Amino acid sequence: MKKFLFSLMMLVTMSTLLVLTSCDNESGPIDKTDEEDKNLVGSINGVKNLDKTVEYLITGPVIIEEGGTLNIPAGTVIKAKQGFENYILVLQGGKINIAGTASEPVTITADKNNAEQGHWGGLIINGKAPLSGGEIGTTEINSDYQYGGSNVADNSGSITYLKLEYTGARSDANVEHNGLTLNGVGNGTKIENVYIPNGADDGIEFFGGSVNVKNLLVVNSDDDMFDFTQGYIGTLENAYGIWDPGFVSSEEDPRGIEADGNLDGNNPTQSGQSDFTVKNMTIDLSLVPSKDEGFYMHDVIKVRRGAKATIENALIKGDGQAKDLIDVNDGKGTGEATISITNALSTSLTGETINGATAAVTFEEANTGCPTDIFDWIGYEF
């Protein structure tokens, strides 16, 4: 009997020790996030919910596969390691939901404080909305990643109050990311309140599709601020593009708007070419007047290669210069533009004010362009 009681007491004691060693004596069970859980890389096939209390790090391609969903709550900070292979890509049938708010935006940025343009890839979304000619497109990253289709209302998720910083990494001179790349994205996708500062290549580029974008601020994009091609048919509303004082572009022909009807002008007879609207746009060239390459904008508005653009309530201002205010001519075909514009550049242009006969331009002194108070959540000083 004594041996039995001694054995029972030893069993109880050992059990108690096991419980104690698996707990934190003051705060209960230990619950630490593994470093691997902080890294974002690889395929997402199911639903992945991020946690705003965790600072994530993009360490390679983040691919949201067909049927997969990435949910990013308000206040989340994601950093990206330097390199072309560090990006987020939503494939056809996948979804990204970025639920930032004015008080708690979502930030995707570089992983170091002294980052420059082109630090990491950016955000790419592939949808199933139409492209010019009814084509199916493929991304430069991987020809297996297709975009385009016949679903105008395709839904790739929702993006609100997002900061995309230091984007545009390149693999060579001809293959580079933008800040936000929208490939055949449908108008069932919501994109509102986006800030894209200090990116290489374009701030935003629409490759076909029908998605509408609202409240967009692009600051110091190395190439074009707003780029449209391959049959885009949506609306960009409240668009503000700025070159800050001291900014220098490294690109050959940086523009405010660049619009092609078909991809690279190589298919001039295609049906369904770009026919889009821009409402309430301001382009501010806050630069010292200069005719040196890189210190002026080539075209504030370039519409070419079969594109049709309706631009309402545009305001162009600043001390900088532009080679052309509006240009609709191109060696691969002209474009058509209907534009209501106020030209408030304080210096004379270095070239033509309007280059091309297919631009119906109305100069309006009262245009106000894009409002600035919608960007109060960013804290940018206009």
Protein architecture, described:
The protein is mainly beta and 382 residues long. The chain has one domain. It has helices at 2-21, 35-38; strands spanning 23-24, 28-29, 39-44, 47-49, 56-64, 69-73, 77-80, 88-90, 95-99, 106-110, 123-126, 137-138, 146-147, 157-164, 170-172, 175-176, 180-183, 190-197, 204-207, 213-219, 226-229, 235-243, 255-260, 275-285, 297-304, 308-318, 322-327, 336-345, 354-355, 359-363. The strands form four sheets. The chain has a 24-stranded parallel β-sheet that branches. Strand 15 (170-172) and strand 16 form a beta hairpin. The chain starts with a helix and ends in a 19-residue tail after the last strand.
Radius of gyration: 25 Å
User: What count of domains describes the coordinates?
Assistant: 1
Based on the structure, what is the oligomeric state of the protein chains?
A: single chain
Percent in strands: 35-45%
Return the structural class. Answer: mainly beta
**Which stretches are poorly predicted, pLDDT < 50 over at least 5 residues?**
1-33
Task: Calculate the terminal CA-CA distance, rounded to whole Å.
Answer: 87 Å
Mean pLDDT across residues? 91
H/I helix tally: 2
How many β strands by DSSP? 30
**Which sheet architecture does the biggest sheet show?**
24 strands, parallel
Shape: globular
Helix content: under 10%
